[in-house]
Every structure is written in structure tokens, then in C-alpha cells.
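Researcher: I'm preparing a figure for a lab meeting and need a structural model of a single chain. I don't have an experimental structure, so a prediction will have to do for now. The sequence is pasted below. Please return the structure as C-alpha cells so I can convert it later.
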Amino acid sequence: MTAYTQVSANRFKTWLIMFGFAAFITALAYLFTQTLGFEGPSALGFSGVALIIAGLLNFFSYYTSDKLVMVISGAKQIQKKDNPTLFRTVENLCIASGLPMPKIYIINDTAPNAFATGRDPQHAAIALTSGILQKLNKLELEGVTAHELSHVGNYDTRLMTIVSILVGTVALLADFFLRISWHTDRDSNNRGNQIFMLIGIVMAILAPFIAILIQLAISRKREFLADASGTLLTRHPDGLADALLKISADREPLEVANKATAHLYIVNPFKQDAAGHKAEGPERSRRAIGWFAGLFNTHPPIAERVKRLRAMQ
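Model: Understood. Here is the structure written out cell by cell.
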């Protein structure tokens, strides 16, 4: 698959996920309204409202994602005069990749990390912490920057921003149902069928969980792609590999990071099992635990990423 088909496929997946999540939200809303005793036009009307809300959230996230993430992360935009070396690095990689120059932000935090955001290359931004500028050498910083620009070029930033917003929508809808069902008079003539009630409660509990697992799986796959794409830009896989090892070895957590933005960073900002350490215990149990725990990781294990990068030489 060429770089052009990768971009085309990612664009298609973005719209597919947007409509898929909207349909998922609508189906949940319809199930919940049936469970609460609404029928016919009332249930369809409530589902229609949920679809409208999902559409508005999609529209809002599509056009404001880069600004929202930067505000949440406490990032400040800089100009070329503020850091000429960093700007030249980004400019050179943009020329090599054919991407327009993104806005550059700095997060005043000594923990080394970086991320990219924006709905498309024309509206992209990359953010780097002050710590990553201090602790990485030129080749390592170039590798990190190429990785983030690859996220932009592959439209990963658009994909993950939309997924994050829609995962939140599912969680809010499920929470709304559980609160309403708890306060609903179960002896009322308008109560839903008991089977629907059971299915509704189970779905309200499982839906956010399933949505988050989908989000994390997509995030891990896009990290592998950005590693490979970034290496094609720099032609120096060791630069990014060394950077990943150095960032993961730094045990200082990123204070401005939160669960909503953690998946955007090049390395898990919470630094939990960032280096991919194996648990103690029998081999079969260790593999089972590792596989299950891996479902909840926002990033692939650093050891696996470095192994793939080293193999590109």
C-alpha cells in the first residue's frame, strides 16, 4: 500500500467512524427510550434528537479540535524568532514530506513529550514540551518531529480527535440512561419490558467500555504507522528509536496530560509500563495478563516500537 492509498484509506475511515458512531449513538438512544417505556414516534423522535446531537458534536470537534487540545494542554504558540532551530527542523521536514508548515506550540513542562493535532494538514499544529527540547539531541528531535508530522500527513490527528469526542458522547448517553432509569418509577404503566430493561442496563455499562477499547486499538495502530512514515522522512530510524527509549526512560509524568489527551502524545504521558516491562509469573499467565492489559494501553509497548524501527535498517 502506497502513502497515497494510506491517506485515502484514513480519510474514508474517518468518515466511516463518524457515521458509525452516530448510528451507534442513535441505536443506543432508541434502545434506552424503549427501555424507559417510550414507544413508536416518541422513541424515534428521541433517537432523532440523539442523532442531531451526535452530528453537532462531530461538526464542533471537526472545526475546533486543534484549539481545544492546545488550551487543555496549556500550550503556547511560538514564532520563528522564539526558536529558530526548531522552526528550521520543522520546515525542512515539511519540505521533504510536501506538507504545509504547521503551527508550533510549546508546553512549559520538563517531562519530554510531543503531539500533533488538527483536522487536516492545512489546519495542523504540533506541540512539544520544553523538556523534550532540552533532553533530546538533534537527530532524536528530528525523529520525533517527523513522527508528529506523519500523524498530520496520514490524517491521524483528525481521526483520533473525532473518536475521542464520540467516545465521550457514548459515555454521556449511557450515564444519562442509568441516572434516569434509577429514578424511574418501575411500577408505572409506562415502564419498559423487563427484557429491554436488562438489555438497556447491560448496554449502558458495556457501551462506554467497548467504545474506549475501539479508541485505544485505533490509537495503537496509528502510532506504528507514524513511526514508519516518520522514518521514511528522516531515513534515520535510530533517531526516533533512541528518542522513544529516552522519553520512556524519563520517569517524570507530564502534569498537563489527562485521559482525554493521553493518546495524542508520542509516548504515554503517565509513564505506566511505558518501556513494555514484562510481569512476573508463569509464562502462560504472563502472556494472558499482558494481552488483556495491552487492550487498555493508548500506545504500543516501547520495546515493540523500537524493535520495528531497528528492523527498518
